[in-house]
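Quick one: structure for this chain?
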Amino acid sequence: MRGSLRQNRNPILKTRLKFLKQFCFFKRVSDREIYSDVASGISFEKRNEFFKLLDNVIQGRVERVVITYKDRLSRVGFDLFQRLFEQFNCKIVVMSEVGNAKLDSEEIFEEIVSLLHCYSMKLYSNRRKMNKLREVIQDVEDEDSLEEKKRGRLRKL
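Got it. Here's what it folds into:
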């Protein structure tokens, strides 16, 4: 189960977890382990629980993964993960194919803004480093030029 980055998602996560447990109970599926991340569905940077799940699937420890909606596993690449999990004899069970369109669009917007912020900060950091590097290079060139001028004056004398 994955939740978005917003702080007020905690009640939604609890509700989803409750529905997942009820679904598993009625379908007679044991819920031995629960993996839950509050992170972006586009970036896997902070998805530690997802990686634990993935490791367990690859090691053959997981037979079935139950999720509320396709995008709870990952915002992108669901078909890829489904195929990968199948290769390790693990089935993904999706409780509902229909999500909350408003929440989904809000989450996508927030994730895009978050990604843009992240990349703009990286660009800003790189630009700062490049400017500092240019200053150092200019200082070295100025020193070299000054040294050459001194040498030229000494030769004339």
